[in-house]
Amino acid sequence: MIHAGRRLQAQLVSLSAWRGAQPVTAPLCCAHSSAAAPQDVPLAPLAEADVPIRAELPAATGRIDLILGPMFAGKTSELLRRIQVHEAAGRRVAVVKSDKDDRYHRSRLVTHDGQARECFATATLAQLRERLGAAYHDIDVFAIDEAQFFPDLLAFCTAAADSHAKHLLLAGLDGDFRRQRFGQVLDVLPLADTVTKLAARCAYCGTPALFSLRIAADARQEVVGGADKYAPVCRRHYAALETRLRLGPIPPAPAAGT
Ligand SMILES: [Zn+2]
Question: Which UniProt keywords apply (predicted)?
C-alpha cells in the first residue's frame, strides 16, 4: 500500500514533468486568480509549493454570494436578512437596486411582504461607483438586488471582489419567463463563493416553484411587475405554459404548512 503523502508527491512530480508540454489548470483562490489571469503573471510551479509566489497579492480578498430563484421566492427578504447580519457585525453595507425597479418605491428596497430599507437606485454599477466617489473604498459589502438588470454586473463584481476586497451579496433571477439566461447573473456564477437557489410556491398547486410564469401578454424580456404580471410555478405547471389559458385563474395562495 502506497502512503498517501508519497502518492501525492508522485502525482505532483508527474504533473510537473507533464506541464512542460501541456497547459495546466489548477484551482485558485480569489487572490491568486485575479493576480494570474488579467496580467498573465506566472505563478510558482505547482510541484514547488515552497517557492515564494512572485505575483503581488492583495492584502485582503473579496467574496461573492449569489441568491437565485424565481419571482416570489423570498430573494430580497434573504438579502435583507444577510444585510442585517453584516451590519450587526459592524460592516458598512451599500444596498443597491436598479432604477428600473420602481414597483414599490424609487429609492427603497421593498420586499413583496412589505419589509423595506433605503438604498441606492442606479442604472449601472459604474454610475454608482462614480456617484460614491472616494466613499466606495469605505464600503465593505455591496448588497445588490435584481442583479439581472445591471448590464455591467460582471465587470463590477470582478473588480470589486478580486481587486478591492469587497463582499458582494447578489440577489437575482437566474432565468427569465422563458427560462433563458437573464442579464449577466449566470456569468457571475463561476466567480461566486456560494450559490443559494430559493424556490417559491406554485400559484396553482403550492409545491415548490422554480420558474416565473408571465401571465401578462408581453413578449419583451424586461417587464417589471408583480403578481399582476407574474406567477411562480412548478415544473409541471410551467410545462403546461402553452395551454395556460386552460389552467384557469390563479387560486388563492395555499395556507402555510399545507
Ligand atoms: Zn404547480
Answer: ATP-binding, DNA synthesis, Kinase, Metal-binding, Nucleotide-binding, Transferase, Zinc
